[in-house]
């Protein structure tokens, strides 16, 4: 069974709601959700400031929760939805977790590590390839981030 654009959009809308939670807590508004067999198994939103933890990105929080729930660090046959293109740290964790598919909204030209600033998704030195798709609800994802940073300046 293939993934339909409608379900990708529905999951991304869920991730956007998580990003709004981050924003309400004064965090950079990024949300992530991990899906397996068309069910949410974990979620996260940025919490680096509140947790005093530079690794508390939305993706890392979701991966940690999923690992505990599944009692396995390998999260095979899962799709990670995230509102912003993952950074280098998050792409490393996504690869180590053996995520099957990554779907993200807004590209991050300055720090994106899927294809924008660096192309880790296709790096030959990684032993795991991740199918990825960008641009799902990109405008909504980018607007949330732009509005957040505009308000902070």
Automatic annotation (TrEMBL):
Top enzyme class:
hydrolase
Binding positions for Zn(2+) per the UniProt entry: 57, 87, 90
PANTHER family recorded: CYTOSINE DEAMINASE FAMILY MEMBER, TRNA-SPECIFIC ADENOSINE DEAMINASE
EC nos? 3.5.4.33
A single Gene Ontology biological process assigned to it is: tRNA wobble adenosine to inosine editing
UniProt keywords (A-Z) are:
Hydrolase, Metal-binding, tRNA processing, Zinc
Please name the source species: Crenothrix polyspora
Q: Which family does it belong to?
A: Belongs to the cytidine and deoxycytidylate deaminase family. ADAT2 subfamily.
Designated name of the protein = tRNA-specific adenosine deaminase
Annotated active site residues, numbered on this chain, are 59 (proton donor)
């Amino acid at each position: 069974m293939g993934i339909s654009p409608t379900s990708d959009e529905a999951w991304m809308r869920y991730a956007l709601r998580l990003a709004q939670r981050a924003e309400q807590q004064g965090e950079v508004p990024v949300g992530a959700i991990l899906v397996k067999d068309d069910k949410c198994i974990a979620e996260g939103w940025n919490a680096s400031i509140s947790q005093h933890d530079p690794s508390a990105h939305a993706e890392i929080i979701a991966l940690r929760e999923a690992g505990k729930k599944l009692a396995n660090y390998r999260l095979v046959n899962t799709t990670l939805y995230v509102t912003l293109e993952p950074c280098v740290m998050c792409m490393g964790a996504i690869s180590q977790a053996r995520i099957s598919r990554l779907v993200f909204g807004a590209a991050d030209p300055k720090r994106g590590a899927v294809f924008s600033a660096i192309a880790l998704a296709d790096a030959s030195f990684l032993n795991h390839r991740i199918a990825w798709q960008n641009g799902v609800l990109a405008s909504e994802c980018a607007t949330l981030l732009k509005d957040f940073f505009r308000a902070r300046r």
